[in-house]
């Protein structure tokens, strides 16, 4: 599924619509794209739709966890990581294996984790502050 020439407000709306769809089921969502392409903006809008008021970027701490009823919303950012062994302390098997909602920025850095995503969203920046977004179901 492709969305072309979206302004950031439309990216946020897309995130909110997706959040509404996966709220009850849980899902592992991988986010790819260059710096500044809208990944964190997407996550913040997604989380806002789920009722969270403040979401922090996990670029420096790698992971944030937010309680969502009987499950969790996880926001992971692999930007600063370079080796698969750096993921070990995160407990990814438990995070990904449950009914949680997991959003992973820069998931394409680790093909093993990339393959475990239910959905991958690719962001591409275009001129005039617009973006193309491609959503692909994997499983």
TrEMBL record:
Database matches in InterPro entries: P-loop_NTPase, T6A_TsaE
Presence of the UniProt keyword Metal-binding in the record: yes
GO molecular function: ATP binding; metal ion binding; transferase activity
One CC-aspect GO term: cytoplasm
UniProt keyword Membrane present: no
Gene3D superfamilies: P-loop containing nucleotide triphosphate hydrolases
Cell compartment(s), UniProt: Cytoplasm
Gene Ontology process terms (BP): tRNA threonylcarbamoyladenosine modification
Keywords on record: ATP-binding, Cytoplasm, Magnesium, Metal-binding, Nucleotide-binding, Transferase, tRNA processing
Pfam families linked to this entry: TsaE
The family this protein is said to belong to: Belongs to the TsaE family.
Protein's UniProt name: tRNA threonylcarbamoyladenosine biosynthesis protein TsaE
Species in which this protein is naturally found: Candidatus Doudnabacteria bacterium RIFCSPHIGHO2_01_FULL_45_18
């Amino acid at each position: 599924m492709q969305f072309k020439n979206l302004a950031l407000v439309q990216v946020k709306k897309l995130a909110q619509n997706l959040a509404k769809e996966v709220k009850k089921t849980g899902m592992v969502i991988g986010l790819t794209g260059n710096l500044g392409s809208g990944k964190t903006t997407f996550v913040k809008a997604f989380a806002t739709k789920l009722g969270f008021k403040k979401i922090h970027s996990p670029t420096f701490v790698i992971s944030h966890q937010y309680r969502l009823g009987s499950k969790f919303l996880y926001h992971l950012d692999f930007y600063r990581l370079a080796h698969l062994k750096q993921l070990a302390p995160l407990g990814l098997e438990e995070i990904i294996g449950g009914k949680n909602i997991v959003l992973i920025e820069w998931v394409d850095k680790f093909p093993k984790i990339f393959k475990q995503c239910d959905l991958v969203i690719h962001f591409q920046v275009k001129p005039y502050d617009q973006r193309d977004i491609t959503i692909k179901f994997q499983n």
